[in-house]
Amino acid sequence: MEEKLKQLKAILGEVSDINNAIALLDWDQQVNMPPGGVEARGYQIATLSNLAHVKFTSDEVGKLLDEFQPLAEQLDPDSDDARLLRVTKREYDKQTRVPSELVIEFAQVTSVAHNAWQEAREKNDFASFAPYLEKIFALRRRYADLFAPYDHVYDPLLDDFEPGLKTADVLAIFSELRTQQVELLKEIASRPQVDDSFLRQPYDEQKQWDFGVEVISKMGYDWKRGRQDHSAHPFTTNFDIDDVRITTRILPDYAASAFFSTVHEAGHAMYEQGISKALRRTPLAGGASLAVHESQSRMWENLIGRSLPFWEHFYPRLRELFPAQLGNVDLQTFYKGINKVEPSLIRTEADEATYNLHVMVRLELEIAVLENRLQVKDLPEAWNEKMRDYLGITPPNDSEGVLQDVHWSGGSIGYFPTYALGNLISVQLWECILQDIPDVNAQIRRGEFGELLNWLREKIHRHGAKFEPQELVQRVTGTKIDPAPYLRYLRTKYGEIYNL
Ligand code: MG
Fold this sequence. Notes:
With 500 residues, this protein is mainly alpha-helical. The chain has helices spanning 2-31, 38-56, 59-72, 80-97, 100-123, 126-145, 155-159, 167-189, 205-219, 255-273, 290-304, 308-321, 323-326, 331-338, 355-370, 379-391, 417-436, 440-445, 450-459, 469-477, 484-497, and strands at residues 228-230, 236-240, 243-248. The chain contains 21 helices and 3 strands.
């Protein structure tokens, strides 16, 4: 068995090398590449993707996995090897079930759809994008049907991002969130608004960059195994546990954007940097799911980065860097300003109290289309209606409404709920941290993050993708993904800020 496991790991190692090379090409495309390189880069990535797919779905891998089936049961079920076999088998069964014609058609449709979406958004012309979106939904339905029987047509799509999670679970979680978040938002709207105008003025770009670097260094981002660059949209990528990179985008007239995105991406990156090196070059060398990943970035960005103890430590330094902008702004005013709640049209700019509502709009529409209760052509109207119901605002046009996100054009249906679930998980974990490290806020006030980061490493990071998200959350917190802690958190935090 030892010998065969070595054989399997050798193949998985090569697949992982190819995938990491693809990630590097993608990083380069977003950070360095001149526009002229785009076509050739597309071919390079497609060729490597196909190589990785062929290697991973080979008969040899299938045969090895079959042979392991009986032997795997003798292993400790929580051991790295047992989990590796389980995750690899799961992924193998998935990938081999999808015919290559469907993979190719999906790649072709989404690559054209991406341009169509960009143009439609620029021209505020949903009708020109609708035929592509219809095709994408049809292809996703065909994909889901490969995994029939399922409880819900959305299950196989969701499963690609959140292994093991069911649509019924997500809908139950969201229905509890919806009523309470809509209610909270109404209460906040009835109170006097806080001031954040001091954030919206010119801030020196280099100083913004330097301050972000200073803060994430203290948080524990390891620069010997990372770097930061500029890109149009901030992201985190990695080519190994020891090479995890982030990017940021600096807005000269709005200081909060680059800072919080830097902290957010560093949260993702510290997760990847904390994965056990024993999992290197295997399918386990990554986060447990997108939601668990987002729980890490959101925790650093919001629970820590938008907290009062955090700014008790960092605000004097920020003020020193920007005396003209912040000299007359006291800590309390600053804290309230960075936590301002305001229903807005664009998801990526939404605050903590409204963010999940944006996600709900998308989730409910995706499901309605997949269930054939809603036609693609009617999406703009349905979108606007939900925005009115949940956020109390109506988009003035589709560019700022149904066309705002790139996800659907790339075929990522089932992706959005992961953002909201990440918020929920972050607070569930935070409640455990408060129990295990009772003086964590005092530590943060002193700018000390070591014990906190060690806790995250021990409970979450080092396991990589060994556990499915629900299992991991249950192991650490004692319950599955649960909206109650997040709702409590919002009530307490905004109760204080808005005197509810
Ligand atoms: Mg993120």
